Amino acid sequence: MSIASVTATTGVNGATTSSKAGQGWGAMGAEDFVKLLTTQLQNQDPTEPVDNTQMLAQLAQFSSLSNLNDMKDSLGTMTKQSDTLSAISTKLDTLNSTVAKLLASQPTTAQA
C-alpha cells in the first residue's frame, strides 16, 4: 500500500492544508479528525479496506477524547470560579471583622 505525501501547504490531491506543526495534539479538533479520516479513506487500498471495527473504534476514541476535553474546560472554569468565590469570602470575612471592631469601639449612649 502506498501513502501519498502531505506537506504543510499542499495536501493529497492538491488540496490546501493548514499546518499545526509545533502545536501538539491538543490543537487538533473535530475538523482535523474529519480531514484525517477522509484522507485515510481516499488513500486506502481498495483490495484491503479498513476494517469497520477499527473505524468505529477510532470514532469512539475521538468522541471520548472530545468529551474529556470539554470536561477539562468545564473543570477549569469551575476552578476559576471557586478561586474567585474564595477570594470574595476572604474579603467579606475581613470586612465583617473590621465592622465588628468598629461597632465594639463605639461608645454606647444611655437613653434617658
TrEMBL record:
Biased composition (Low complexity): 1-19
Ranges for region Disordered: 1-25
A Pfam family annotated for this UniProt entry: FlgD
InterPro entries the record matches: FlgD
Superkingdom of the organism of origin: Bacteria
Entry keywords, A to Z: Bacterial flagellum biogenesis
Function according to Swiss-Prot or TrEMBL: Required for flagellar hook formation. May act as a scaffolding protein.
Family: Belongs to the FlgD family.
Protein name per UniProt: Basal-body rod modification protein FlgD
Organism in which the protein naturally occurs: Novosphingobium jiangmenense
